[in-house]
Each structure stands twice: as structure tokens, then as C-alpha cells.
Design brief:
With 173 residues, this protein is of the alpha+beta class. The protein has two domains: 2-73 and 141-172, Alpha-Beta Plaits (2-Layer Sandwich), CATH 3.30.70; 76-133. The protein is built from seven helices and seven strands; from the N terminus they run E-H-E-E-H-E-E-H-H-E-E-H-H-H. Helix 3 crosses helix 4 (91-98) and helix 6 crosses helix 7.
């Protein structure tokens, strides 16, 4: 098994009694970082990152009215950020690839576009650069981005009291 490191962002700080219940539920491998945006830093042993995240989310249910609001990751990048992470390509090179002016085409679409700023998924961009362009960059586990999106959707559904509708939507999608 592998030990996976990740952060689970919380809707609020647990009090001392709640923290004890969480510890007893199995969150002894997670450290609470309190503050305005509290989170658990987790070092969870599991077969996969998704299993590790899921097991923490299940254990959070030991405390009513405490839930995850996100799984922290740094997946969103501008083309400038992507160039810095890559280390071997410039922002201009990535801009040409994204515009289809160079390369085989099919550069990943932005996940957010607003006010002349495009934000891409680093997991998607790095995978494309590795497979389509042959760039020697490490593979990124896309599980963090997927888990974060799922947790944020569940949180929004909970706040809007529409959990059942979202569950049904996911079953048929």
C-alpha cells in the first residue's frame, strides 16, 4: 500500500469533543489546521488516492454538521503557470499549442475562461504534453481534481438541500 498526502478542506473548525470523536473514528493520521479556512492534512495509507480520500470523507461523518468543502490541489493553471511547472516550455510555446498554431492539435480546453484569462487543468495539460508532444514531465494523478470537483458538488447540493436530485443526476450521467 501507498501513503497518500492530501488536504481535506472543512466547512468549519471542529470543537474539542468533535475532534476527539474524529480521532476515535480513525482520523489519527490527519492533522487539523485550524483557522478561517480549516483543513485536515492527511497521510492516509490505501491502495489508491481515491480510496484514501473516500475513507477520510466517510470518517468525517462521525460529526454532525461537519463536512468537507474541497480537496486541496493545485490543478488550475494559466499558460504561464504551466510553463513554469513544465520547466522546458515557454508561455509563448504553450499559447501556440493551445491555439492550434503548432503541434498536432487537440490541446486541452480551458476549464475556466473569464476576462481574457484562461485556466487549464494541469493534469490534462501535462498528460497531453507527455502523450502528444513527447515531453518528459511527471505524470499527475488526476484523482485529486476529480475528488475536489465531487466534494464541491456534494457541498453545494447539501447547502441547497438538493442532495437527492444530484445523486439521481450522477446515476444517469
Amino acid at each position: 500500500m501507498t501513503v497518500w498526502d492530501f488536504r481535506i478542506m472543512l466547512n468549519r473548525n471542529p470543537d474539542d469533543d468533535e475532534f476527539d470523536r474524529l480521532f476515535e473514528a480513525g482520523l489519527d493520521d490527519c492533522a487539523l489546521v485550524s483557522g478561517r479556512s480549516p483543513y485536515f492534512m492527511c497521510d492516509r495509507e490505501a491502495d489508491s488516492l481515491m480510496e484514501a480520500i473516500l475513507s477520510v470523507l466517510v470518517q468525517l461523518r462521525a460529526v454532525d454538521q461537519l463536512w468537507a468543502v474541497g480537496v486541496q490541489h493545485n490543478d488550475g493553471v494559466t499558460l504561464g503557470d504551466a510553463a513554469r511547472r513544465h520547466g522546458g516550455r515557454t508561455q509563448a510555446s504553450l499559447r501556440q499549442l493551445a491555439a492550434g498554431q503548432r503541434g498536432p492539435g487537440g490541446f486541452p480546453e480551458p476549464v475556466i475562461e473569464a476576462d481574457n484569462i484562461s485556466v487549464y487543468s494541469w493534469a490534462e495539460v501535462s498528460d497531453w504534453l507527455r502523450t502528444e508532444m513527447g515531453d518528459d514531465i511527471p505524470q499527475v494523478d488526476r484523482s485529486l481534481a476529480l475528488a475536489d470537483a465531487a466534494v464541491k458538488l456534494a457541498c453545494r447540493a447539501r447547502i441547497m438541500h438538493r442532495e437527492n436530485e444530484v445523486r439521481r443526476l450522477l446515476e444517469v450521467a
